[in-house]
Amino acid sequence: MAGAGVVEPSSEVIDIRTALSGQVTAVLVRPGDYVTRGQPLFRVDERGVRARLGGAEAAIREASAAISEARAAESTAARR
Question: SUPFAM superfamilies, alphabetically (predicted)?
Fold first, then answer.
């Protein structure tokens, strides 16, 4: 799920979007609240992003192990 919202400051209307898609788990402001630049307005469920991050980290570890193994084989071959 993805969503967009509208902030209506006294001077202009500003659209808000997030780089993450997902379910909004908490809305941190109410209509009429004054907010400042950089203030979080809502939270998005981050479980999907964390799962993808874990998979990417595992792939990096596997690639690093393969590189180490290839370097060891290269070193062994160079000694012969």
Answer: HlyD-like secretion proteins (SSF111369)
DSSP 29-64: --TT----TT---EEE--HHHHHHHHHHHHHHHHHH
Pairwise CA distance, residues 64 & 15, whole Å: 42
> pLDDT of the chain along its 80 residues, tens only?
455 565 556 667 777 777 777 888 999 999 888 888 889 999 999 898 899 999 999 999 999 999 999 999 999 998 87
Which 3 state secondary structure label does DSSP give 66?
Answer: helix
Q: Distance between CA atoms of 29 and 71, rounded to whole angstroms? A: 54
Burial 52-74 (b: 16+ CB within 10 A, else e): eeeeeeeeeeeeeeeeeeeeeee
Which residues, listed in sequence order, are joined to residue 44 by a DSSP beta bridge? Answer: 24
